Structures are given as C-alpha cells and as structure tokens.
Amino acid sequence: MQTHSISDQTGSLISWITKIFLALNLAVYAGFTVAFLLFPVPLANAIGYTIHSSGALADFRAMYSGLCFGVGLLVYYGLIKPEFKTQAIFLSVASAAGLFVARLYTLFLDGPGNEYIYLSMATEIVSVFLGVWLLRKN
C-alpha cells in the first residue's frame, strides 16, 4: 500500500485548482471571441454601444473578439503546455486587474454602473486574488 505525503496532495490540489482557473478563463475568452465575432451589433446594443459604421464595427469586433482570441490562445497553451502555465495565469490576473481598475475608475468619474458591470467586477476581483495565490503556489 502506497501512501502519499501531504505535500504531494497539496501539489495535486493546487494543480487541479490551476487547471480549473485556466479553464474558466479560457471559457470566458472563447465565449467572448465567438459571441462578439458573430453577434456584435446585438451585444453592443445590450451593453449600451451604438455602432454607426463598418469602421466602428471592425474596431468593436477587434477589441471584443480578436483581442479575446489572443488572450484565450495563451490561456489555452497554459492548460496544455506546462511551460506556458505561469504566463497564462499572469495574463489572466493582469487582464482581470486591468478590467477591474478601468471599471472602478469609470464608476468614480461617471457614476453607477449596471448589473453587468458589478457582476463583472466581482468575477474580476475573485480572478485577481485566486490568480495571485496560484502564482505564489506555482
């Protein structure tokens, strides 16, 4: 009968949490990539944008779909290639922190947000704290 040490079990748990963290980030970025590529106008309207030209549409798709594709690709590599894991976690933390700070700045300058903004901010805070913890453990 083989016994596993506490550090083996802890390492396995951290590895499992890391994979879930990266998989959830990948799901979000992949979802944004597909949704904003295929349905940019209705999604723009849902969050308060009005798109008046093909140039605006191209930029909207690029930022909400294309950029998410690039981030998602690195997160995917972090899931399947151990040498990309730390970079994928760091990118997830940095992007969540950047999104949170920009939303918070807007709330202070321009007033209250809506449910989407507050839900997004909550997930971003969790992502930052969990991601920083994972970076320290990995």
TrEMBL record:
Top-level taxon in the UniProt lineage: Bacteria
Organism name: Leptospira neocaledonica
Pfam families xref list: DUF4345
Stretches that traverse the bilayer: 20-42, 62-80, 87-105, 117-135
Keywords: Membrane, Transmembrane, Transmembrane helix
Name assigned to this protein: DUF4345 domain-containing protein
